[in-house]
Specification:
binds zinc ion; Urease, subunit C, domain 1; 2 domains; 12 helices; globular; single chain; 8-stranded mixed β-sheet
């Protein structure tokens, strides 16, 4: 496919400011040429021209924390226990909704029964319309501390075995949960830093990234110091934790959409007062963690936790807006969703718009650098040079 996105404002995600009146040529799935629109030398009748006027072109978005096996909503945890055919078919639909919202790459950080691994394979084979997916298999968790469909372990050697088994079954990312789900109260965290470090060593020795679910104070202390690649959620991160993360180059994936959606459902579905209060507290904790992370120089990558919490799929714009509400410039929220995310995921051929890279692109009918909500105004989505929305 040979495409010219013509006369567009280009924000390439490399750190350069946006440039007006640019053109981007796509050939064989890759970015073939970038330059001022007036300097393009090709023959217009031989390419498919996409009008870029009054539009902004940005790299394909990356959501570093999704669960396509669940739709989110007010009873998201129960949805993970739906019958397998329902979960599987739904995952295909939700992945497509995500792609249409501009998410061309996603990390699926946990699904029952290998659904996310199968989904990732189907996406890569071009059998379904879905983002490029990096899938963790299921969650790895200490016995008794997590949902029944996680892979449980007790001793350190069993943790090593669990990680090896995940890799053998096709996981491309290791996900460890230190304690209970978002709704649980983690009275006891069976992990300590030493035990988590065993997991980090085992995953990284095999060449895999390790993401750590930490959504209570004790888990945040441990995960920030164990050298995991990313700390997910982190609503109870304190200054010392954030400094440790900056030192360890541990990325924060704040998933603020979850608390935002939870608070919405708390009122819309009329949850008990205690649950409303809890949602408010988590949202506030998450905001403080993000504000602190920016100050401490912690790398932030965007993740919505769509499906894994109350947040629904296809709403990545909301997460970017919540980041901006915490004081990030729109530009920095976009970096969290593109180049920073690509570093975390390990996708060096994606995440920026540069000659020779994979043509994953989002064309918007507004300027997200002025108002990040412009991420909702999708004019087109290209994945590997193919127009998918
Ligand atoms: Zn999650």
């Amino acid at each position: 496919m040979h495409v010219l996105i013509d006369d567009v404002q280009l924000w390439d995600g490399t750190g350069s400011p946006a440039q007006a009146r640019m053109s981007v040529e796509i050939r064989d799935g890759l970015i073939h040429w970038i330059g001022p629109a007036s300097q393009w030398q090709g023959s217009r009748p031989t390419v498919q021209i996409v009008d870029g006027r009054a539009r902004t072109l940005i790299p394909g978005l990356m959501d570093c924390h999704v669960h396509y096996s669940s739709p989110g909503g007010p009873d998201w945890i129960a949805r993970f226990s739906d019958p397998l055919p329902e979960i599987s078919i739904r995952a295909i639909e939700l992945a497509e909704a995500s792609l249409r919202s501009g998410v061309t790459t996603a990390r699926d950080v946990g699904a029952p029964q290998g659904v996310s691994i199968k989904l990732a394979h189907m996406a890569r084979a071009g059998e379904i319309n879905a983002p490029n997916i990096r899938a963790a298999g299921t969650w790895i968790a200490h016995r008794g501390s997590y949902v029944s469909f996680a892979r449980h372990f007790g001793e350190a050697h069993e943790l090593r075995d669990a990680i090896r088994m995940e890799i053998e079954e096709g996981a491309e990312l290791i996900k460890v949960a230190l304690s209970g789900w978002n709704e649980g109260n983690a009275a006891e965290v069976p992990f300590n830093e030493k035990l988590l470090s065993v997991g980090v060593e085992e995953a990284q020795r095999a060449g895999f990234k390790i993401a750590c679910h930490a959504n209570d104070p004790a888990s945040c202390r441990i995960a920030a110091r164990a050298g995991v690649d990313s700390l997910e959620h982190g609503m109870f991160l304190e200054q010392g934790d954030l400094d440790a993360m900056a030192n360890n180059k541990t990325c924060l994936v704040p998933t603020m959409s979850v608390w935002d959606a939870m608070l919405y459902y708390a009122h819309a579905v009329d949850w008990p007062e205690a649950r409303k209060k809890r949602a408010e507290g988590l949202r506030q904790g998450s905001r403080l963690a993000v504000i602190g992370a920016v100050r401490a120089g912690v790398q932030i990558a965007l993740g919505t936790d769509a499906g894994g919490g109350a947040a629904r799929h296809g709403r990545i714009a909301r997460e970017a807006e919540l980041m901006v509400e915490c004081g990030l410039e729109p530009r920095d929220a976009l970096i969290a969703a593109t180049s920073s995310a690509s570093k975390l995921i390990g996708e060096d051929q994606r995440g920026t718009i540069e000659k020779g890279k994979i043509a994953d692109l989002v064309l918007l009918d507004a300027n997200p650098l002025e108002n990040v909500g412009a991420l909702r105004l999708i004019a087109a989505v290209f994945q590997g040079g193919r127009r998918v929305a």
